Amino acid sequence: MTAPGSTSRASPVGRSSNLFREFHYQARGRAHLEEGTPVQDRTRYLSRSGVQVLCLADGAGSAQHSDLGAQITVDSGCAVLAERFEAFSGTNDGAAVKQELLARLNARIDAVASRRGISPSDLACTFLAVAMSDETFIGAHVGDGVIGFLKDGELRAISLPDNEEFANRTTFVTSAGAASSMRLFRGSLAGVDGFVLMSDGAAETLFNPRSNELARACKKLMSAVGSPAYSQAKRSSIRKRLGRFIDLSVRLATKDDCSVAVFGRTRPESRGTDAASGSRP
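The structure assignment produced for this chain is given below.
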């Protein structure tokens, strides 16, 4: 595994209950609205046994049931990473982690495909995930999309899209080369104030592929999610405001589905005013 830097909906519980809050959102793209087809992106958050997990999957446009595949993948990914966090974060055998994680994801996909009488490739999707507990985080990434974080005040993309050679082609969890192309990373949460996971549709607005830089809006999203007001009475209105930002400022810039998942480090009132109560991201 590589180590960047030094080494929804419910509030986190367990050992990490006061570290990070989450926001995740998926929006149907304009092309799917025009065609009358469902959104193929899915996001999921899970807090279990002191582990917090965010997963995002983008269904393949060429796969007939990729929306179902994306849902299966985020559900399975959250469960596996919560269950196996200690083992995955404590080993240096990245190849073994890749094999086990993909085997678990594909076992569920294969089971659903068999029951429905379809091919696993009909459920093809990408996979992005970040999991954390105590002061350690791990991440996994198959396919396009971007994962980034805010560390020591600096935004940084830590996992880039796997489609640099061909803009419209990428790897899926069901692909034969998924294990070799999967990116794994881990590190310390010291100095980290947030993470952002985004599908390729959202990345058209929130990521610059020429410079590999995240948009400043990513920092504002993390700040809003970690703000004191986010966990209090205004929480639902802030979530709606962030959802509107995705719908209006991110989704309308592309025809593709857009999904975003954010962790924001919890900030006490004494650290300043609510970042989400001012200008929107």
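Interim note for the steering committee: Residues 94-116 form the longest helix (23 residues). The CA atoms of residues 13 and 37 lie 36 Å apart.
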